[in-house]
Write a structure and sequence with these properties.
Structural class: alpha+beta
Strand content: 15-25%
Distance between the termini: 51 Å
Radius of gyration: 30 Å
Order of helices and strands: HEEHHHEEHEHEEEEEEHEHHHHHH
Number of strands: 12
């Protein structure tokens, strides 16, 4: 069994794969897949440089040769063809809260050692034939497709922070959730109902304890339906500061439009979007189209100021939906 001094962490900016090639790499091969503890064995080896770029099957072959040549092999002879390598990883496939649970996940026999096994990793020898990278990937895709198909017949709880799924129409499981939406502000992540409990990475945020308990539901009540699905720093500042004071320019623009509150907002929005590359002509075309629809719905005699306010409201809603769709894609919040 080879041994050596502990290797240092890779220098900042250095590829971990390159660093493993340039330094000594050790792995711990463990056989524990037997109720008889006298047959268990741990082998620590320092990998030859050529092994790092080779297949993981070499590690398995080396272990079996060492195992069968020792006292354990006299009690329990191992066969390479009936074994595979595994590593312990998080049991969660989606990065969600899994209470720290782990499970053994198979390594492909044709996988490159340095690309899939970190330095000083515990690698477990388990019963069952090895599989190739293509075979493992095919099984993973089939499992994902199966889960997607199963989800089609399930409802998802609409409570904030609860991701449970259940059969449509029930039974409804117990639920732990938050009463307010999440807040993502700069690097901080927290629930608006629990502002004193903050997290700064996704896994830590997912593990924040819920503040409410009850029963899952797939029906949003009127109040929840009108709530934002997540908040930003602007939402929190607005909540704390109260209504925004109007500038003199906004007041004058509103007066010129017959008292419309939306007129100065639309004017500012037109200018800002112009700076972002949205042509003024395109903006005017969209506004006129919304004005036409609003006028037709309200009927003859409708006040111009009311139409302008309606335009601002409708356009704001459409922009909000577009921004929310982008944010949902980025944050993966469904």
């Amino acid at each position: 069994v080879a041994s050596g001094s502990a290797s240092a962490s890779p220098p900042q900016g250095t590829s971990s794969h390159y660093y493993c090639f340039a330094t000594k790499m050790k792995v711990f091969l463990r056989y524990e897949d037997n109720e008889d503890e006298s047959t268990h064995k741990t082998l620590k080896i320092t990998l030859p440089k050529s092994w790092k770029s080779g297949p993981t099957s070499r590690l398995l072959e080396q272990f079996v040769e060492s195992y069968n040549g020792g006292k354990e092999g006299k009690l329990n002879t191992l066969e390479v063809d009936s074994l595979h390598l595994s590593v312990r990883r998080s049991a969660s496939n989606d990065g969600g809260d899994d209470d720290g649970a782990t499970e053994l996940k198979d390594l492909p026999c044709d996988g490159v050692v340095v690309e899939i096994i970190p330095d000083r990793e515990d690698v477990y020898i388990c019963h069952g034939p090895s599989r190739t990278l293509e075979e493992i990937d095919a099984e993973r895709r089939a499992k994902v497709d199966e889960e997607k198909e199963a989800v089609k017949h399930l409802s998802k709880c609409v409570h904030f922070g609860c991701n449970k799924r259940f059969p449509k129409g029930g039974p409804y499981p117990e639920c732990k959730y938050h009463s307010g939406p999440p807040v993502f502000h700069e690097t901080a992540k927290f629930w608006s109902c629990c502002p004193n409990k903050k997290a700064y990475d996704w896994e830590e945020f997912q593990s924040l304890p819920a503040c409410q308990s009850g029963t899952c539901t797939d029906v949003r009540d009127d109040e929840a339906g009108s709530q934002k699905q997540f908040l930003g720093g602007c939402d929190m500042r607005e909540k704390m500061s109260g209504p925004k004071l109007r500038s003199i320019d906004d007041f004058n623009a509103s007066a010129a439009a017959g008292g419309s509150e939306g007129a100065p907002v639309l004017e500012r929005l037109r200018n800002v979007l112009g700076e972002l590359g949205v042509e003024n002509e395109l903006f005017d075309q969209v506004v006129e189209g919304i004005k036409k629809d609003a006028t037709q719905k309200s009927g003859p005699g409708v006040d111009d100021a009311d139409v302008t306010d309606e335009v601002a409201k409708v356009l704001g809603g459409k922009l909000k939906s577009s921004m929310k769709a982008i944010a949902v894609e980025q944050l993966r919040i469904k």
